[in-house]
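Memo to structure team: turn this sequence into structure tokens by end of day. - J.P.
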Amino acid sequence: MKKHSQSIKSKFTALENHFLNTFFSGIYISANEFINIGKKVDLNLGMNSRELLIKELLNKSDADGKLNQVVELLNTLIQERVDKYNSLSRDYPGSSNMLSNLTQKATSTKSLLARESRGNPYE
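Reply from structure team:
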């Protein structure tokens, strides 16, 4: 069985894995949302699995000098989800514990995104 996801070497592996696992990221970003972010920065992403899309989005934007724009768009998307969680928490107080946990994870995802986008200064 051939794995295409391993054919692209990525310096964003930790971030990619974080986005793919809702348990850690606190949010779910669909394949269509990744494609739309790519379109906003003039990156043509083919229809692929979410795994390949996030890998392609981060690596192509980095190579094209558009990583900061992608990070900004991802942060905006994450913040929209956090705002939605907060709104739902107010409207449905019984869900506030679960939504608070998701909010905390999404906020830490924004921090990870910022840290990973800066890269390793020793490379």
